[in-house]
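TASK: fixed-backbone design
INPUT:
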């Protein structure tokens, strides 16, 4: 049984910030790589950020320097801190556990110009 619940999205002005949370109910969470994806209407889902079980991070070029992924293994939660938001960051954001074929409902992020 896998459960992933994304939260923290909302409507913000360009230049604003949001922090997304991904609460995971899955075994051996601390050893798993977790990714954040986003999908804009009519566009392909894209990988935004990755964090491994030991805390190694990677980011899409489009968000480097603006987004920070982190995790709290004691809370089984991964975060995505988003700053200096741009309209092109708009979309539904999903977390995904590597090698597990499960997607939650996501959380909507809308950045107005």
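OUTPUT:
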């Amino acid at each position: 049984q896998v459960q992933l619940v994304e939260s923290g999205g909302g409507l913000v002005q360009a230049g604003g910030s949001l922090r997304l949370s991904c609460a995971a109910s899955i075994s051996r969470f601390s050893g798993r790589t977790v990714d954040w994806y986003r999908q804009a209407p009519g566009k392909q889902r894209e990988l935004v950020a990755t964090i491994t079980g030991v805390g190694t991070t990677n980011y899409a070029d489009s968000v480097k320097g603006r987004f920070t992924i982190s995790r709290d293994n004691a809370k089984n939660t991964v975060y995505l801190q988003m700053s200096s938001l741009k309209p092109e960051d708009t979309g539904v954001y999903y977390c995904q556990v590597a090698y597990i074929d499960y997607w939650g409902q996501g959380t909507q992020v809308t950045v107005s110009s």
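COMMENT: The chain is about 0% helix and 50% strand.
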